[in-house]
Amino acid sequence: MSISKDVLKVQPSATLAMSAKTKALIAKGVDVINLSIGEPDFTTPEPIKRAAIDAIESGKASFYTPAGGLPELKQAICDRIQLEDGVTYTPDQVIVTDGAKFSLFLIFQVILNAGEDVLLPEPFWVSYAEQVHLAGGNAIAVPTTGKDHKVTVADLEAAITPTTQALVINSPQNPSGLIYEAAELKAIGDWAVAHDITIIADDIYSNLIFNGHEFTSIVTLGEAIKQHTLLVSGVSKTYSMTGWRIGYVLGDAKTIKIMNTVASHATGNPAAVSQYAAIAALTGDQKEAQAMRAAFEDRLNTIYPKIAALPGFDLPTKPQGAFYLFPNVKKAVQLCGFASTEDFVEALLTQAHVAVVSGKAFSQPDHIRLSYANSKENLLKAYERINQFMQDHMQ
Ligand SMILES: Cc1ncc(COP(=O)(O)O)c(C=O)c1O
User: Fold this and answer.
1) Residues with beta carbon inside 6 Å of ligand 1?
2) How many angstroms does the Cα of residue 131 sit away from the middle of ligand 1?
3) All residues at 6 or more sequence positions from 322 whose CB lies less than 8 Å from its CB, including other chains
């Protein structure tokens, strides 16, 4: 059977691959602590589950919905962003998709012509580059010189090409957990507007902000920036709803309408039952979402100082959002005599029984990503295992 040459170039998701490897070991009975996954470990709050069950029982979840989502859900998304960020969108500026991952996929399909470039500040989430490739575009990795892995206008100036079409900004960032400050975003936004570049703002972690830090969405920084931005978010991380697959894009009505047309031929519509659950999540009491956020904050405060103090682990800035730590482990790898970060990660899994992801998946091969979406007890156990592993291997 013949396979498209372009598709054969696409790499499997490294985070999902690590997760699968870990789950296979666990299935064999090995006691692995899994810090490789990018999803909250809580189950979806009861009122959201109840809304889904009601939608099934009443029969309303039985049918196709509009391709771009139920009008009530689009309204709920507009209301929530108005409340949280003070920014106004109307339902014709919203499309609901099968997770934010498909929002991003759809964006690249719609905005890119073959051979056009998308700027991806390093480190970047594993799927952006492959999604750009699948849309026929070029992913341009942008080395970052700003504080804490953040891209500056000078970095963007150095990377821009005549065919640059878009720029992805992810804050809080996966994998580093760092947040862009308003002034940093404003400079980037003004630069993108001046070059007529579409900003893809991946705000999926915007509700997981810790220790009094503040989140700013780039769309709040002026009308011109807002008009140049496609804002991506979803319910997966805030409401512990990764399995339900509901994400969304907010942007100018014309682009959203075209995305709608493409989606109508691709997915039809996101699962109706998940859409009813998302309405309950966005319009209901936020108490449980806030409690989950507080739990992540507590875990960060517990585990960060310990991981940062491990020999050869370089993690000078405490993350401010999301649920990841992204230390540079170059020295640790050397201290233990491994040839590469990947060998170190493999040994952590098979010998210390702690699963993490190599930074190569995020274009920073000297780093590893540890997710703290796990119980405090497991996080402390994982720390003890890594510490013991280091003591055993250090030469
Ligand atoms: C940075 C980033 N963007 C988007 C997504 C996609 O989220 P979902 O498809 O679950 O809505 C993820 C999930 O891991 C992510 O880390």
Assistant:
1) 38, 99-101, 125, 170, 174, 202, 204, 234, 236, 242, 247
2) 13
3) 172, 173, 174, 177, 205, 208, 237
pLDDT digits (tens, 9 = 90+) for 249-298: 999 999 999 999 999 999 999 999 999 999 999 999 999 999 999 999 99
Distance CA 312, CA 331 (A): 5
Q: Please state which of the four CATH numbers 1.10.760.10, 3.40.640.10, 3.40.50.11240, 1.20.1250.20 is assigned to the domain occupying 63-283.
A: 3.40.640.10
Domain boundaries, the chain: 5-43+288-389, 63-283
Ligand 1 mean position to 237 CA, how many Å? 8
CATH superfamily of 5-43+288-389: Aspartate Aminotransferase, domain 1 (3.90.1150.10)
Instruction: Quote the tokens at residue 91.
Output: 């339902």
User: Tokens 């150095």 appear where?
Assistant: 158
pLDDT at 14: 76
Distance 101 CA to ligand 1 centre (A): 6
Q: How far apart are CA 371 and CA 322, in angstroms?
A: 9
